[in-house]
Amino acid sequence: MASAQSAWQPRIAIIGAGISGIAAVVKLRKAGFSQLTVFEKADKVGGTWRENTYPGLACDIPSHWYSFSFEPNPDWHHRCAHGPEIQAYLERTAQKYGVTDIVRFNSAVTRLVYQAPHWLLYCNGQNSEPEQFDIVISATGILHRTIMPAIPGLDDFAGASFHSAHWDHSVDYHGKRIGVIGTGSTSCQIVGAVTKDAQHLTLFQRTAQWVMPSPQKAYSNFTRWLRKVWPFRSVLSKVVWRAYAENTLGRANAGNKALVKLIDVIARWHLKKYVPDPVLRAKLTPDYVVGCKRLIYSSDFYPAISRENASVVTEGIERIEAEGVRTNDGVLHPLDILVLATGFDASSFILPTQVIGENGQELSEVWDGSPRAHRAVAMPGFPNFWMVEGPTGPIGNFSLIAISESQVDYIIRCLNEMHARKSAWMAPTQEAFKNYNEAMNAAVVNTSWYHGGCNSWYLDKSGLPNLYPWLSSRYFKEMKTPDFSEFRFS
Ligand code: N01
Protein backbone atom coordinates (compact mmCIF):
# COMPACT_ATOMS: atom_id res chain seq x y z
CA MET A 1 0.00 0.00 0.00
CA ALA A 2 1.29 3.45 -0.91
CA SER A 3 2.25 5.45 2.10
CA ALA A 4 1.26 9.05 2.65
CA GLN A 5 3.88 11.61 1.82
CA SER A 6 5.25 13.07 5.01
CA ALA A 7 4.40 16.58 3.76
CA TRP A 8 0.73 15.77 4.20
CA GLN A 9 -0.11 15.10 7.80
CA PRO A 10 -3.84 15.45 8.40
CA ARG A 11 -4.94 15.56 12.02
CA ILE A 12 -6.81 12.32 12.54
CA ALA A 13 -9.12 11.61 15.48
CA ILE A 14 -9.87 7.97 16.20
CA ILE A 15 -12.80 7.29 18.50
CA GLY A 16 -12.44 4.13 20.55
CA ALA A 17 -9.41 2.12 21.68
CA GLY A 18 -10.81 -1.36 21.11
CA ILE A 19 -9.82 -3.77 18.38
CA SER A 20 -10.72 -1.40 15.54
CA GLY A 21 -9.05 1.62 17.14
CA ILE A 22 -5.83 -0.30 17.76
CA ALA A 23 -5.81 -1.64 14.19
CA ALA A 24 -6.44 1.88 12.85
CA VAL A 25 -3.50 3.41 14.74
CA VAL A 26 -1.03 0.68 13.84
CA LYS A 27 -1.96 0.64 10.16
CA LEU A 28 -2.23 4.42 9.76
CA ARG A 29 1.21 4.86 11.31
CA LYS A 30 2.64 2.20 9.02
CA ALA A 31 1.15 4.09 6.08
CA GLY A 32 2.95 7.26 7.17
CA PHE A 33 0.26 9.11 9.11
CA SER A 34 1.54 10.44 12.39
CA GLN A 35 -0.90 13.10 13.63
CA LEU A 36 -3.15 10.64 15.42
CA THR A 37 -5.19 11.06 18.61
CA VAL A 38 -7.37 8.34 20.09
CA PHE A 39 -10.33 9.22 22.30
CA GLU A 40 -11.43 6.49 24.69
CA LYS A 41 -14.36 6.81 27.08
CA ALA A 42 -12.89 4.32 29.57
CA ASP A 43 -9.57 4.14 31.38
CA LYS A 44 -8.14 1.17 29.46
CA VAL A 45 -7.90 -0.11 25.91
CA GLY A 46 -9.76 -3.28 24.89
CA GLY A 47 -13.34 -2.28 24.03
CA THR A 48 -15.74 -5.17 24.39
CA TRP A 49 -13.06 -7.38 25.94
CA ARG A 50 -12.46 -4.77 28.63
CA GLU A 51 -16.17 -4.30 29.31
CA ASN A 52 -17.20 -7.96 29.43
CA THR A 53 -15.68 -9.93 32.30
CA TYR A 54 -18.40 -12.47 33.09
CA PRO A 55 -17.47 -16.06 34.07
CA GLY A 56 -17.02 -18.27 31.02
CA LEU A 57 -16.21 -15.34 28.70
CA ALA A 58 -14.41 -16.64 25.63
CA CYS A 59 -14.27 -15.91 21.94
CA ASP A 60 -16.10 -18.41 19.78
CA ILE A 61 -13.83 -17.57 16.84
CA PRO A 62 -10.53 -19.50 16.78
CA SER A 63 -7.72 -17.36 18.21
CA HIS A 64 -5.19 -17.56 15.40
CA TRP A 65 -7.85 -16.11 13.14
CA TYR A 66 -8.98 -13.68 15.84
CA SER A 67 -5.54 -12.01 15.94
CA PHE A 68 -4.11 -8.94 14.25
CA SER A 69 -2.27 -9.75 11.01
CA PHE A 70 0.63 -7.61 12.28
CA GLU A 71 0.74 -9.29 15.68
CA PRO A 72 0.32 -13.05 15.41
CA ASN A 73 0.31 -14.73 18.80
CA PRO A 74 1.80 -18.23 18.86
CA ASP A 75 1.16 -18.32 22.59
CA TRP A 76 -2.65 -18.57 22.64
CA HIS A 77 -3.51 -21.09 25.35
CA HIS A 78 -6.76 -22.24 23.79
CA ARG A 79 -8.09 -22.65 20.29
CA CYS A 80 -10.84 -20.20 21.31
CA ALA A 81 -9.15 -17.80 23.72
CA HIS A 82 -10.74 -16.83 27.01
CA GLY A 83 -11.71 -13.21 27.60
CA PRO A 84 -8.86 -12.23 29.98
CA GLU A 85 -6.24 -13.63 27.58
CA ILE A 86 -7.70 -11.58 24.70
CA GLN A 87 -7.79 -8.45 26.87
CA ALA A 88 -4.14 -9.02 27.83
CA TYR A 89 -3.25 -9.50 24.15
CA LEU A 90 -4.97 -6.23 23.22
CA GLU A 91 -3.27 -4.30 26.04
CA ARG A 92 0.11 -5.81 25.12
CA THR A 93 -0.36 -4.98 21.42
CA ALA A 94 -1.47 -1.42 22.18
CA GLN A 95 1.61 -0.96 24.36
CA LYS A 96 4.03 -2.53 21.89
CA TYR A 97 2.87 -0.39 18.95
CA GLY A 98 2.70 2.84 20.95
CA VAL A 99 -1.07 3.07 20.73
CA THR A 100 -1.54 3.55 24.47
CA ASP A 101 0.70 6.64 24.36
CA ILE A 102 -1.69 8.53 22.12
CA VAL A 103 -4.94 7.56 23.81
CA ARG A 104 -6.82 10.16 25.79
CA PHE A 105 -8.51 8.01 28.36
CA ASN A 106 -11.76 8.90 30.15
CA SER A 107 -12.62 11.07 27.17
CA ALA A 108 -15.99 10.30 25.67
CA VAL A 109 -16.62 12.17 22.44
CA THR A 110 -20.03 13.77 22.78
CA ARG A 111 -20.35 15.83 19.61
CA LEU A 112 -18.82 16.08 16.15
CA VAL A 113 -19.62 19.01 13.92
CA TYR A 114 -18.45 19.33 10.32
CA GLN A 115 -17.26 22.80 9.40
CA ALA A 116 -15.80 22.34 5.95
CA PRO A 117 -13.21 21.05 5.60
CA HIS A 118 -12.67 20.23 9.30
CA TRP A 119 -14.42 18.40 12.08
CA LEU A 120 -14.92 20.02 15.46
CA LEU A 121 -14.71 17.43 18.18
CA TYR A 122 -16.29 18.00 21.59
CA CYS A 123 -15.30 15.80 24.46
CA ASN A 124 -16.72 14.89 27.83
CA GLY A 125 -15.06 16.35 30.88
CA GLN A 126 -13.28 19.14 29.01
CA ASN A 127 -14.28 22.75 28.76
CA SER A 128 -16.57 23.58 25.89
CA GLU A 129 -13.69 24.39 23.52
CA PRO A 130 -13.77 21.91 20.64
CA GLU A 131 -10.69 20.52 18.94
CA GLN A 132 -10.25 20.61 15.21
CA PHE A 133 -9.47 17.52 13.13
CA ASP A 134 -9.21 16.89 9.40
CA ILE A 135 -10.32 13.29 9.52
CA VAL A 136 -12.49 11.43 12.04
CA ILE A 137 -12.49 7.64 12.26
CA SER A 138 -15.19 6.12 14.42
CA ALA A 139 -14.04 2.82 15.89
CA THR A 140 -16.69 2.56 18.58
CA GLY A 141 -17.67 -1.07 18.10
CA ILE A 142 -21.14 -2.52 17.67
CA LEU A 143 -22.24 -4.21 20.87
CA HIS A 144 -21.59 -1.72 23.63
CA ARG A 145 -24.95 -0.18 24.54
CA THR A 146 -26.55 -2.65 26.90
CA ILE A 147 -30.25 -3.45 26.74
CA MET A 148 -32.02 -3.57 30.10
CA PRO A 149 -35.21 -5.60 29.76
CA ALA A 150 -38.47 -3.71 30.17
CA ILE A 151 -39.66 -6.01 32.95
CA PRO A 152 -41.61 -4.38 35.80
CA GLY A 153 -40.00 -4.43 39.24
CA LEU A 154 -36.33 -4.67 38.17
CA ASP A 155 -35.36 -2.30 40.97
CA ASP A 156 -37.39 -4.21 43.57
CA PHE A 157 -35.06 -7.22 43.60
CA ALA A 158 -33.42 -7.58 47.02
CA GLY A 159 -30.46 -9.66 45.81
CA ALA A 160 -27.65 -8.72 43.45
CA SER A 161 -28.70 -7.89 39.92
CA PHE A 162 -26.58 -6.76 36.98
CA HIS A 163 -26.30 -6.86 33.20
CA SER A 164 -23.88 -9.48 31.89
CA ALA A 165 -21.63 -6.70 30.53
CA HIS A 166 -21.31 -5.22 34.04
CA TRP A 167 -20.62 -8.38 36.01
CA ASP A 168 -20.31 -7.59 39.70
CA HIS A 169 -17.25 -9.55 40.87
CA SER A 170 -17.82 -8.48 44.46
CA VAL A 171 -20.75 -10.90 44.53
CA ASP A 172 -19.78 -14.49 45.25
CA TYR A 173 -22.07 -16.71 43.19
CA HIS A 174 -20.88 -20.03 44.69
CA GLY A 175 -23.68 -21.88 46.48
CA LYS A 176 -26.26 -19.25 45.46
CA ARG A 177 -29.56 -19.40 43.59
CA ILE A 178 -28.75 -17.74 40.28
CA GLY A 179 -31.26 -16.61 37.68
CA VAL A 180 -30.21 -15.75 34.13
CA ILE A 181 -32.57 -13.93 31.78
CA GLY A 182 -31.75 -14.42 28.10
CA THR A 183 -30.36 -17.28 26.03
CA GLY A 184 -27.85 -15.66 23.65
CA SER A 185 -24.13 -16.42 23.29
CA THR A 186 -23.42 -14.58 26.52
CA SER A 187 -25.99 -16.48 28.55
CA CYS A 188 -24.79 -19.85 27.22
CA GLN A 189 -21.23 -19.06 28.27
CA ILE A 190 -22.33 -17.91 31.74
CA VAL A 191 -24.58 -20.93 32.28
CA GLY A 192 -21.80 -23.23 31.07
CA ALA A 193 -19.38 -21.71 33.59
CA VAL A 194 -21.36 -21.06 36.78
CA THR A 195 -23.98 -23.80 37.06
CA LYS A 196 -21.68 -26.36 38.64
CA ASP A 197 -20.97 -23.94 41.51
CA ALA A 198 -24.52 -22.68 42.01
CA GLN A 199 -27.01 -24.01 44.51
CA HIS A 200 -29.48 -23.75 41.66
CA LEU A 201 -29.45 -22.06 38.26
CA THR A 202 -32.68 -20.95 36.62
CA LEU A 203 -32.54 -19.97 32.96
CA PHE A 204 -35.43 -17.75 31.87
CA GLN A 205 -35.73 -18.50 28.17
CA ARG A 206 -37.93 -16.53 25.81
CA THR A 207 -36.53 -18.12 22.65
CA ALA A 208 -34.50 -21.32 22.34
CA GLN A 209 -31.17 -21.12 20.51
CA TRP A 210 -29.36 -23.37 18.07
CA VAL A 211 -26.13 -24.45 19.73
CA MET A 212 -23.28 -26.09 17.82
CA PRO A 213 -20.43 -27.97 19.50
CA SER A 214 -17.49 -25.68 20.14
CA PRO A 215 -14.13 -26.49 18.50
CA GLN A 216 -12.54 -25.46 21.81
CA LYS A 217 -9.37 -27.18 23.00
CA ALA A 218 -6.38 -26.28 25.16
CA TYR A 219 -3.00 -25.96 23.48
CA SER A 220 -0.16 -27.85 25.13
CA ASN A 221 3.23 -26.28 25.89
CA PHE A 222 4.63 -28.30 23.01
CA THR A 223 2.04 -26.99 20.52
CA ARG A 224 2.68 -23.42 21.61
CA TRP A 225 6.43 -23.93 21.30
CA LEU A 226 5.91 -25.43 17.85
CA ARG A 227 3.92 -22.40 16.77
CA LYS A 228 6.73 -20.15 17.94
CA VAL A 229 9.43 -21.94 15.98
CA TRP A 230 7.15 -22.64 13.04
CA PRO A 231 4.78 -19.65 12.64
CA PHE A 232 3.37 -21.17 9.49
CA ARG A 233 1.13 -23.33 11.71
CA SER A 234 -0.70 -20.24 12.98
CA VAL A 235 -1.06 -18.87 9.46
CA LEU A 236 -2.44 -22.20 8.31
CA SER A 237 -4.88 -22.27 11.21
CA LYS A 238 -6.15 -18.81 10.26
CA VAL A 239 -6.59 -19.73 6.60
CA VAL A 240 -8.33 -23.00 7.40
CA TRP A 241 -10.81 -21.53 9.91
CA ARG A 242 -11.62 -18.63 7.65
CA ALA A 243 -12.29 -20.94 4.69
CA TYR A 244 -14.32 -23.24 6.93
CA ALA A 245 -16.50 -20.42 8.28
CA GLU A 246 -17.11 -18.97 4.86
CA ASN A 247 -17.93 -22.27 3.21
CA THR A 248 -20.21 -23.61 5.90
CA LEU A 249 -22.21 -21.07 7.89
CA GLY A 250 -21.29 -18.20 5.52
CA ARG A 251 -22.79 -19.98 2.52
CA ALA A 252 -25.70 -21.32 4.59
CA ASN A 253 -26.64 -17.82 5.73
CA ALA A 254 -26.33 -16.54 2.16
CA GLY A 255 -29.06 -19.00 1.13
CA ASN A 256 -27.47 -22.44 0.51
CA LYS A 257 -30.25 -24.79 1.67
CA ALA A 258 -28.14 -27.97 1.66
CA LEU A 259 -25.70 -26.37 4.10
CA VAL A 260 -28.54 -25.10 6.29
CA LYS A 261 -29.82 -28.69 6.44
CA LEU A 262 -26.37 -30.02 7.30
CA ILE A 263 -25.91 -27.53 10.16
CA ASP A 264 -29.44 -28.30 11.35
CA VAL A 265 -28.59 -32.01 11.51
CA ILE A 266 -25.38 -31.36 13.49
CA ALA A 267 -27.12 -28.98 15.90
CA ARG A 268 -29.95 -31.50 16.53
CA TRP A 269 -27.42 -34.30 17.04
CA HIS A 270 -25.56 -32.10 19.53
CA LEU A 271 -28.77 -31.35 21.45
CA LYS A 272 -29.83 -35.02 21.53
CA LYS A 273 -26.42 -36.24 22.61
CA TYR A 274 -26.03 -33.88 25.58
CA VAL A 275 -29.65 -33.40 26.67
CA PRO A 276 -31.03 -36.86 27.37
CA ASP A 277 -34.26 -35.64 29.02
CA PRO A 278 -36.88 -35.36 26.22
CA VAL A 279 -38.90 -32.71 28.08
CA LEU A 280 -35.89 -30.45 28.52
CA ARG A 281 -34.81 -31.18 24.95
CA ALA A 282 -38.18 -30.06 23.63
CA LYS A 283 -37.83 -26.80 25.56
CA LEU A 284 -34.38 -26.22 24.11
CA THR A 285 -35.37 -26.96 20.49
CA PRO A 286 -35.74 -23.78 18.44
CA ASP A 287 -38.66 -23.33 16.05
CA TYR A 288 -36.78 -21.29 13.43
CA VAL A 289 -34.11 -21.90 10.82
CA VAL A 290 -30.62 -22.62 12.10
CA GLY A 291 -28.34 -19.59 11.63
CA CYS A 292 -31.25 -17.11 11.71
CA LYS A 293 -29.88 -15.77 14.98
CA ARG A 294 -26.13 -15.67 15.44
CA LEU A 295 -25.15 -19.32 15.83
CA ILE A 296 -23.86 -20.27 19.28
CA TYR A 297 -20.82 -22.50 19.66
CA SER A 298 -20.66 -24.08 23.09
CA SER A 299 -19.87 -27.52 24.41
CA ASP A 300 -20.55 -26.51 28.02
CA PHE A 301 -24.09 -25.21 27.79
CA TYR A 302 -26.08 -28.43 27.27
CA PRO A 303 -24.23 -30.46 29.94
CA ALA A 304 -24.63 -27.55 32.38
CA ILE A 305 -28.33 -26.98 31.78
CA SER A 306 -28.95 -30.75 32.03
CA ARG A 307 -27.59 -30.85 35.58
CA GLU A 308 -29.95 -31.56 38.46
CA ASN A 309 -29.35 -28.13 39.93
CA ALA A 310 -30.48 -26.35 36.73
CA SER A 311 -33.86 -25.61 35.22
CA VAL A 312 -35.21 -23.87 32.16
CA VAL A 313 -38.29 -21.69 32.59
CA THR A 314 -40.13 -20.92 29.36
CA GLU A 315 -43.15 -19.27 30.99
CA GLY A 316 -43.08 -15.51 30.37
CA ILE A 317 -41.86 -13.21 33.12
CA GLU A 318 -44.59 -11.18 34.80
CA ARG A 319 -42.42 -9.09 37.10
CA ILE A 320 -39.36 -9.05 39.32
CA GLU A 321 -40.03 -9.04 43.05
CA ALA A 322 -37.78 -8.68 46.08
CA GLU A 323 -37.38 -12.48 46.41
CA GLY A 324 -37.01 -13.35 42.74
CA VAL A 325 -38.79 -13.63 39.40
CA ARG A 326 -42.53 -14.19 39.16
CA THR A 327 -43.69 -15.78 35.93
CA ASN A 328 -47.08 -15.42 34.23
CA ASP A 329 -48.32 -18.70 35.74
CA GLY A 330 -48.05 -17.08 39.20
CA VAL A 331 -44.97 -19.07 40.26
CA LEU A 332 -42.24 -17.22 42.16
CA HIS A 333 -38.70 -18.39 41.36
CA PRO A 334 -36.65 -17.39 44.42
CA LEU A 335 -33.16 -16.06 43.63
CA ASP A 336 -30.09 -14.56 45.28
CA ILE A 337 -28.53 -13.27 42.05
CA LEU A 338 -30.22 -12.14 38.85
CA VAL A 339 -28.11 -11.83 35.70
CA LEU A 340 -29.56 -9.88 32.78
CA ALA A 341 -27.97 -11.47 29.71
CA THR A 342 -30.34 -9.46 27.56
CA GLY A 343 -27.95 -8.23 24.91
CA PHE A 344 -27.08 -4.94 23.27
CA ASP A 345 -28.56 -2.25 21.08
CA ALA A 346 -26.79 -3.03 17.82
CA SER A 347 -28.29 -0.05 16.00
CA SER A 348 -26.37 2.68 17.75
CA PHE A 349 -22.79 2.38 16.43
CA ILE A 350 -21.26 5.81 17.19
CA LEU A 351 -24.55 7.16 18.59
CA PRO A 352 -25.49 8.72 21.00
CA THR A 353 -22.50 10.92 20.05
CA GLN A 354 -24.09 13.73 18.11
CA VAL A 355 -22.65 13.77 14.59
CA ILE A 356 -23.56 16.77 12.46
CA GLY A 357 -22.48 16.67 8.83
CA GLU A 358 -22.91 18.94 5.81
CA ASN A 359 -25.88 21.30 5.87
CA GLY A 360 -26.45 20.60 9.54
CA GLN A 361 -27.80 17.10 8.99
CA GLU A 362 -27.63 14.83 12.03
CA LEU A 363 -26.47 11.27 11.64
CA SER A 364 -29.10 9.98 14.10
CA GLU A 365 -31.83 11.53 11.95
CA VAL A 366 -30.38 10.22 8.71
CA TRP A 367 -30.18 6.72 10.18
CA ASP A 368 -33.47 6.91 12.09
CA GLY A 369 -33.00 3.50 13.73
CA SER A 370 -31.83 1.82 10.49
CA PRO A 371 -28.14 2.67 10.18
CA ARG A 372 -26.69 2.27 6.72
CA ALA A 373 -23.31 3.20 5.26
CA HIS A 374 -21.39 3.04 2.03
CA ARG A 375 -19.39 -0.21 2.16
CA ALA A 376 -19.84 -0.07 5.96
CA VAL A 377 -17.29 2.74 6.28
CA ALA A 378 -18.59 6.09 5.00
CA MET A 379 -21.70 8.25 4.66
CA PRO A 380 -22.73 10.75 1.99
CA GLY A 381 -23.00 14.20 3.50
CA PHE A 382 -20.37 13.39 6.14
CA PRO A 383 -17.04 14.18 4.44
CA ASN A 384 -13.86 12.79 5.97
CA PHE A 385 -15.92 10.82 8.46
CA TRP A 386 -15.05 7.15 8.42
CA MET A 387 -16.28 4.16 10.36
CA VAL A 388 -14.59 0.89 11.20
CA GLU A 389 -17.21 -1.80 11.88
CA GLY A 390 -19.92 0.54 10.69
CA PRO A 391 -23.40 -0.60 9.57
CA THR A 392 -23.93 -3.61 7.25
CA GLY A 393 -20.45 -5.06 7.52
CA PRO A 394 -19.91 -8.82 7.18
CA ILE A 395 -20.12 -9.53 10.91
CA GLY A 396 -21.86 -12.58 12.38
CA ASN A 397 -19.80 -15.69 13.01
CA PHE A 398 -16.64 -14.17 11.49
CA SER A 399 -13.41 -12.64 12.83
CA LEU A 400 -14.12 -8.97 13.51
CA ILE A 401 -10.38 -8.32 13.56
CA ALA A 402 -10.02 -9.39 9.93
CA ILE A 403 -12.97 -7.17 8.95
CA SER A 404 -11.64 -4.16 10.86
CA GLU A 405 -8.25 -4.49 9.22
CA SER A 406 -9.71 -4.64 5.72
CA GLN A 407 -11.76 -1.51 6.44
CA VAL A 408 -8.77 0.40 7.82
CA ASP A 409 -6.77 -0.55 4.71
CA TYR A 410 -9.63 0.75 2.55
CA ILE A 411 -9.70 4.05 4.47
CA ILE A 412 -5.93 4.44 4.04
CA ARG A 413 -6.26 3.87 0.27
CA CYS A 414 -8.91 6.57 0.21
CA LEU A 415 -6.78 9.02 2.21
CA ASN A 416 -3.89 8.44 -0.16
CA GLU A 417 -6.17 9.09 -3.13
CA MET A 418 -7.44 12.26 -1.50
CA HIS A 419 -3.88 13.43 -1.09
CA ALA A 420 -2.97 12.53 -4.68
CA ARG A 421 -5.90 14.65 -5.87
CA LYS A 422 -4.94 17.49 -3.50
CA SER A 423 -8.42 17.33 -2.06
CA ALA A 424 -9.36 18.65 1.34
CA TRP A 425 -12.20 16.18 1.75
CA MET A 426 -14.01 13.24 0.22
CA ALA A 427 -17.37 11.58 0.80
CA PRO A 428 -19.35 8.91 -1.03
CA THR A 429 -21.88 10.22 -3.51
CA GLN A 430 -25.55 9.89 -2.66
CA GLU A 431 -25.98 7.81 -5.80
CA ALA A 432 -23.21 5.32 -4.95
CA PHE A 433 -24.60 4.98 -1.43
CA LYS A 434 -28.11 4.41 -2.77
CA ASN A 435 -27.01 1.84 -5.38
CA TYR A 436 -24.90 -0.06 -2.89
CA ASN A 437 -27.62 -0.20 -0.28
CA GLU A 438 -30.39 -1.04 -2.74
CA ALA A 439 -28.38 -4.00 -4.01
CA MET A 440 -27.81 -5.05 -0.42
CA ASN A 441 -31.46 -4.74 0.53
CA ALA A 442 -32.42 -6.85 -2.49
CA ALA A 443 -29.93 -9.57 -1.54
CA VAL A 444 -30.43 -9.59 2.21
CA VAL A 445 -33.98 -10.93 1.91
CA ASN A 446 -32.49 -14.18 0.58
CA THR A 447 -30.52 -14.79 3.75
CA SER A 448 -31.62 -16.96 6.65
CA TRP A 449 -31.23 -13.91 8.93
CA TYR A 450 -34.27 -12.47 7.14
CA HIS A 451 -36.49 -15.42 6.22
CA GLY A 452 -35.41 -17.79 8.99
CA GLY A 453 -38.44 -16.95 11.14
CA CYS A 454 -36.70 -15.42 14.15
CA ASN A 455 -36.15 -12.10 15.83
CA SER A 456 -32.54 -11.09 16.47
CA TRP A 457 -30.23 -8.17 17.10
CA TYR A 458 -29.29 -8.33 13.41
CA LEU A 459 -32.66 -6.77 12.49
CA ASP A 460 -33.02 -3.01 12.77
CA LYS A 461 -36.00 -0.69 12.57
CA SER A 462 -36.29 -1.30 8.81
CA GLY A 463 -37.02 -4.97 9.55
CA LEU A 464 -33.97 -5.96 7.51
CA PRO A 465 -30.80 -7.57 8.88
CA ASN A 466 -28.03 -4.99 9.29
CA LEU A 467 -25.50 -7.32 7.70
CA TYR A 468 -23.54 -7.87 4.54
CA PRO A 469 -25.65 -10.38 2.57
CA TRP A 470 -22.96 -11.91 0.39
CA LEU A 471 -19.91 -14.01 1.16
CA SER A 472 -17.31 -12.20 3.23
CA SER A 473 -14.64 -13.04 0.61
CA ARG A 474 -16.55 -10.77 -1.78
CA TYR A 475 -16.42 -7.96 0.74
CA PHE A 476 -12.67 -8.38 1.26
CA LYS A 477 -12.13 -8.31 -2.50
CA GLU A 478 -14.26 -5.17 -2.93
CA MET A 479 -12.41 -3.38 -0.13
CA LYS A 480 -9.01 -4.08 -1.70
CA THR A 481 -9.66 -1.81 -4.68
CA PRO A 482 -11.81 1.22 -3.83
CA ASP A 483 -13.80 2.56 -6.75
CA PHE A 484 -13.09 6.28 -6.45
CA SER A 485 -15.88 7.15 -8.87
CA GLU A 486 -18.16 6.39 -5.92
CA PHE A 487 -16.81 9.47 -4.12
CA ARG A 488 -17.02 13.25 -4.32
CA PHE A 489 -13.72 15.01 -3.79
CA SER A 490 -13.29 18.67 -2.95
O1 N01 B 1 -27.24 -11.00 23.44
P1 N01 B 1 -28.39 -11.57 22.47
P2 N01 B 1 -25.86 -11.68 23.89
N1 N01 B 1 -37.28 -10.97 28.56
O2 N01 B 1 -29.05 -10.35 21.91
C1 N01 B 1 -33.26 -12.21 25.71
C2 N01 B 1 -21.63 -11.33 20.81
N2 N01 B 1 -21.00 -12.25 21.72
O3 N01 B 1 -25.22 -10.75 24.82
O4 N01 B 1 -34.16 -14.18 21.68
C3 N01 B 1 -36.72 -12.16 28.31
O5 N01 B 1 -27.89 -12.57 21.51
C4 N01 B 1 -33.34 -12.48 24.24
O6 N01 B 1 -34.52 -13.21 23.95
P3 N01 B 1 -35.09 -13.30 22.42
C5 N01 B 1 -22.27 -12.14 19.72
O7 N01 B 1 -22.18 -11.44 18.50
C6 N01 B 1 -19.92 -12.89 21.25
O8 N01 B 1 -26.05 -13.08 24.31
O9 N01 B 1 -35.09 -11.89 21.91
N3 N01 B 1 -35.65 -12.34 27.54
C7 N01 B 1 -32.06 -13.27 24.03
O10 N01 B 1 -32.22 -14.59 24.40
C8 N01 B 1 -23.67 -12.22 20.19
O11 N01 B 1 -24.60 -12.57 19.21
C9 N01 B 1 -19.30 -13.79 22.01
O12 N01 B 1 -36.45 -13.86 22.58
C10 N01 B 1 -35.12 -11.24 26.98
C11 N01 B 1 -31.11 -12.59 25.01
O13 N01 B 1 -31.90 -11.89 25.94
C12 N01 B 1 -23.83 -10.85 20.77
O14 N01 B 1 -22.63 -10.62 21.47
C13 N01 B 1 -19.76 -14.08 23.29
C14 N01 B 1 -35.64 -9.96 27.18
C15 N01 B 1 -30.19 -11.61 24.34
O15 N01 B 1 -29.35 -12.31 23.47
C16 N01 B 1 -24.96 -10.64 21.71
O16 N01 B 1 -25.05 -11.77 22.57
C17 N01 B 1 -20.86 -13.42 23.77
C18 N01 B 1 -36.77 -9.86 28.01
N4 N01 B 1 -37.35 -8.67 28.25
C19 N01 B 1 -21.48 -12.50 22.96
N5 N01 B 1 -34.89 -9.08 26.48
C20 N01 B 1 -18.13 -14.44 21.41
O17 N01 B 1 -17.80 -15.53 21.77
C21 N01 B 1 -33.93 -9.80 25.86
N6 N01 B 1 -34.08 -11.10 26.15
C22 N01 B 1 -17.37 -13.74 20.33
Automatic annotation (TrEMBL):
<keyword id="KW-0285">Flavoprotein</keyword>
<dbReference type="GO" id="GO:0004499">
    <property type="term" value="F:N,N-dimethylaniline monooxygenase activity"/>
</dbReference>
<dbReference type="GO" id="GO:0050661">
    <property type="term" value="F:NADP binding"/>
</dbReference>
<dbReference type="GO" id="GO:0050660">
    <property type="term" value="F:flavin adenine dinucleotide binding"/>
</dbReference>
<keyword id="KW-0560">Oxidoreductase</keyword>
<keyword id="KW-0274">FAD</keyword>
<dbReference type="InterPro" id="IPR020946">
    <property type="entry name" value="Flavin_mOase-like"/>
</dbReference>
<dbReference type="InterPro" id="IPR036188">
    <property type="entry name" value="FAD/NAD-bd_sf"/>
</dbReference>
<protein>
    <submittedName>
        <fullName>NAD(P)/FAD-dependent oxidoreductase</fullName>
    </submittedName>
</protein>
<dbReference type="InterPro" id="IPR051209">
    <property type="entry name" value="FAD-bind_Monooxygenase_sf"/>
</dbReference>
<dbReference type="Pfam" id="PF00743">
    <property type="entry name" value="FMO-like"/>
</dbReference>
